[in-house]
Amino acid sequence: MPVQKIKRNYRKTKYILYKETLIDFKEHFWAFLGSFIGIGIIAYLQSQTLPDSDVVYLIGSFGASSVLVYGVIQSPLAQPRNLIGGHLISAIIGVTVYKFVPDILWLTAPLAVSSSIVLMQMTKTLHPPGGATALIAIAGSEKIKNLGYWYVLSPVLSGVLILLVVALIFNNMAHSRIYPNHKKYHQFRKRVATMFKSKSDE
Questions:
Q1: Which value, in Å, is the radius of gyration of the alpha carbons in the chain?
Q2: In sequence order, what DSSP letters do the residues of 163-195 get, joined into one string?
Q3: What is the pTM of this model?
Q4: Second label for 4, Cα 20 to 30 Å away, from 26, 45, 56, 73?
Q5: pLDDT tens track for 83-140
Q6: Which of 38, 24, 88 is nearest to 66 (CA)?
C-alpha cells in the first residue's frame, strides 16, 4: 500500500539522516574534502572566465547539492540520477517559464518551482536543490536570464558533472563510504579495477 511505502521511506530517510549526522571525524573529513574540491573547481572556473566573458559556472543551488552528495551520500535524493536529472529538469522548466512569462515574478517564481517539484517526482529524480535551480533561472542576475537555454548546459550541466565526478572519487576513498548506493555500479567498478590490476601484473 502507498501509505506503508511512505512510512518505510520515511523511516529509512530518518535513519540515514541520523547516521550521517553522528560525530564521526572520518566522515566529516571526507565530506569536507569532497565538497571543498567540488565547489572549489567550479569556483575556480568562474574566477578564471568571468573577467573575460559572461560565462557563469557557479550558482547557489550547487551549495545545497554538495550537502547531499558529500554529506548525506546514502540518501535517495543524493544519487547521480537525482543529482543530474533534478537539476536539468528544473533548469529547463525555469528557463521555459521565464521565456513565456518574463515580467510577472509573483507568478513565474512559484510556477517554476512547483512545476519542477512535480516533474522531478514524476521522473523519480527528486533533488531538493533543483527547486533553487529553477528559481535562479527566474530571479537570477541578468547574465543568467540572458543565457536562455544555454543555462541548462552551463552552469547547470557542467557544474553538476563536476560535483558528480568529485563525489564518485572522494565518496569511495574510505571503506565505510560507498557512492552511489547502486550495486551494479560497484560491481562494474570492481570488474574494471580487476582488469587493470591483471594487466599491470602481466
A1: 19
A2: HHHHHHHHTTSSTT--SS--HHHHHHHHHHHHH
A3: 0.82
A4: 73
A5: 999 999 999 999 999 999 888 999 999 999 999 999 999 999 999 999 999 999 999 8
A6: 38
